[in-house]
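Archive record:
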Amino acid sequence: MLFEKVKSDLLAHNSYMIGSGSEAAVIDPRRDCRIYTKIAESRNMTITRIFETHRNEDYVVGSRELARPTGAEIYHGAAIDFGYGNAAGEGDTFSIGTLRLRVLETPGHTKESLSYVLSDTAVSDDPLMVFTGDALFAGDVGRTDLAGDEMREKMSGMLYDSLHDKILPLGDDVIVCPAHGAGSVCGGDISDREYTTIGYEKEHTPLLQWSKADFVEYKKHEHLYVPPYFRKMEDLNLHGPPLIYTIPHLAALSPKAIREMQNAQILDIRSPTSFAGGHVPGSINIWREGLPAFIGYLLKYDDPIVLIDDFNLDLDPVIRHFVRLGYDTITGYLAGGFAAWFRQGRELETAGIWSPRDLAEHLTDPSVFILDVRDITHRERDGYIPGSHHIYVGNLDQNLGRVPRDKHIVAHCDVGYKGSLAASILQKNGYENVTNLLGGTHGWEGAGYSLTRD
């Protein structure tokens, strides 16, 4: 029996490959899908089926991309009208060698959500694993807000029923294989556990121990951010994303070529300290590990994207982040790195940097506006710097009217990376006096200052 989990790091997406004999199947594949055919080739297997648990919102599903070279059939839920593939419903079964997949309809996260129960009939007909998509995670359950506020109560009730009537009764020893791990925006607080079981989740996940009324009430008021790119993902995954065939090749661009590009989105992927020391005017600073979380908030899908780095090392994993989120307009990078920009005497911008002590000395200065750009959960749970104002960095671009232009803006997060992103957004929008608090709230407490906790 073949079982392999394929993780897309930073995006926190899990896909799975199963197989028996000469046949294999893939569940929720990613768009850069060569990894699955490599696994199949190494085992002398042929991928014959592709299963989707639901229309994903946070990445472009790779089903069509994988079906092109393999000829595999695609299956997904019947409750919405997909533009490709085949509908599957409650009780349908599929054989992959001696393996059997049985379909459970488990709506709640989305109305067409499916879970797939795996049995190895060479050993037993009993369930061995269940692929739960976004219904059940390690330590959490799926979000129920994406169908709109008017549907939250209904979707929450559906998810409760799916969990308690379909998934949990499968048996305590059944291995749970969710579509996401810790850090995903598809749950509220997913645990950092590689593997889990139904019994472990029943025992240790409080949401699974609540009454239906309490569960629905909590999910109705759960506060989760909705990145704007979700709507683009839903549309692509409903109708079928365009085929890319391979990872894009980026052009090595000169400073002159970048400046002559129409509507270029200049993305600086260096560290906050490098960005503060000097950067291309109008560029946005998202550190490499932050790309999957924030490009969908800030970048347009129709305009070319250009990368700025110091040495342009190992750009392949960077490109894959864009491919997985449907940004096919990623065009090139600054040849020679940022040094090529200043060697030609091109215009530069800098951003301010403060230490916690610098901020402490100006804490009551009326000319200083302290901007906390963490998510609201961290602010409420961990506390905040006295006198700070809160706007989540993902929503900053739409809330600039709340940030005064006649004050010195000191942006901060928990460490300094999102603070640098916020500073770059403000500078791009014409704010002239912007500083990033290096160390953020962690550095603030590390320096001996207190956070306010309500």
